[in-house]
Every structure is written in C-alpha cells, then in structure tokens.
C-alpha cells in the first residue's frame, strides 16, 4: 500500500519509505566506500532520487527490498569501476609525464643537430631558404609559398625538396637525421 501511495506522487509516503530503509542501507553501503559518510550519503541520495523518478513502476515490484538492495549494490559496483578507471588514468598520466629535469645528453645532441641544420640553411640560396622557412615555420602550402615568393607551385615544391635534401645531408654527417629533422621541422623559431 505504501508503494502505491509513493507511485501516485505522495511525498509523505515517500518520506516514510525513505526513513524506513535509510538506516539499513547506510550500514550496507558504508563498508564499501572506505567508511566515508559523504560518499555513503551521496550514493543513498542518488538511489532514492532514482526511486522517486521511477515511482510509477514501484507497485509492480514483488520484492521492493530486494530491488532496493540490488540498486544499491549496482551503484557501489559502478563507483568502484569508476575509481579503478580513474586510478588507472592517473597512473598512466603520471608515467607518461616526462621528467622536468633536463637531459644534458639530449640537449647537447639537439644543439649539435640544430647547429648543423642552421649551417645548411645559411648555405642555401635566399629563395630556397625562404621557401623552406615559409613551409616549416609558417605552415604555408606550396600554393601560398608560390604566391608569396612569386614562383609557381612546382618551383616551390622543387625548392622545398632541395632544401630538405640539403638539411638531410648535413644531419647525416651527425648521425640520426630523421629524429633531428623532425625536431627542426616542428620547432617554431
């Protein structure tokens, strides 16, 4: 009869239902949430809120208490899954975060490769250097470079390929040119 009254929207009947089941559910939830009163209250508020939203379905339930305990158990399981995902994310994020301490070997290597690439750029013709810089540092397309420099798209492409080849050759003298070229091309001066 109480569930029927709740289903019809009787707030007093809902308060009676709430007050009757709250202490038992509180004791049921508490051990699963690290004895946290805040989390226990949050879970129980959510459970009873869902019951109120679905109040029209209550009279059809054979065992309301079983239904209530199952809802509570499922919410606790969801909470634990969420925690595991969150903890895994935080661990992954922590391990993916690079060290803030500078790597002196990497810094020296970068400096050497950068000097070799910069020397190769200085040795280029002005037009070839300009095409390379417009493409790598200003993200211009070959068409945009052609308009800026006053040359055709195919000429811009030839200059870009020649500039890239010259830088590659300079970096090959220093070892790993692919990593260095990537650093150079992505570095915005």
Description of the structure:
With 189 residues, the chain is mainly α. It contains 9 helices and no strands. It has helices at residues 2-7, 11-29, 37-53, 64-96, 104-123, 126-137, 142-149, 153-172, 177-186. The longest helix is centred in the middle third of the chain and has 33 residues, at 64-96. The protein is elongated. The mean pLDDT is 83.
State the order of secondary-structure elements, H for helix, E for strand: HHHHHHHHH
Low-pLDDT residue intervals, each spanning 5 or more residues: none
Beta-strand content estimate: under 5%
Mean residue pLDDT: 83
Instruction: Characterize the largest beta sheet: strand count, sense, and whether it forms a barrel.
Output: none
| Helical proportion, percent range | over 70%
Taken from the alpha-carbon principal axes, the silhouette is elongated
Distance between the termini: 77 Å
Report the strand count: 0
Computed Rg: 34 Å
- Alpha-beta content class: mainly alpha
Number of helices: 9
């Amino acid at each position: 009869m109480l569930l029927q009254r709740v289903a019809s929207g009787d707030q007093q009947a809902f308060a009676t239902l709430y007050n009757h089941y709250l202490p038992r559910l509180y004791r049921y939830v508490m051990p699963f949430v690290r004895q946290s009163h805040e989390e226990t209250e949050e879970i129980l508020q959510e459970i009873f809120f869902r019951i109120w939203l679905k109040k029209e379905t209550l009279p059809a339930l054979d065992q309301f208490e079983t239904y209530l305990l199952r809802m509570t158990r499922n919410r606790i399981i969801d909470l634990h899954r969420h925690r595991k995902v969150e903890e895994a994310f935080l661990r992954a994020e922590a391990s993916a975060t690079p060290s803030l301490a500078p790597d002196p070997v990497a810094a020296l290597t970068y400096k050497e490769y950068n000097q070799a690439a910069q020397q190769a750029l200085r040795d280029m013709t002005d037009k070839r250097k300009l095409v390379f810089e417009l493409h790598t540092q200003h993200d211009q397309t070959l068409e945009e470079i052609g308009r800026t420099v006053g040359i055709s798209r195919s000429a811009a492409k030839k200059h870009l390929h020649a500039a890239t080849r010259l830088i590659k050759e300079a970096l090959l003298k220093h070892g790993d040119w692919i990593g260095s070229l990537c650093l150079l091309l992505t570095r915005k001066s």
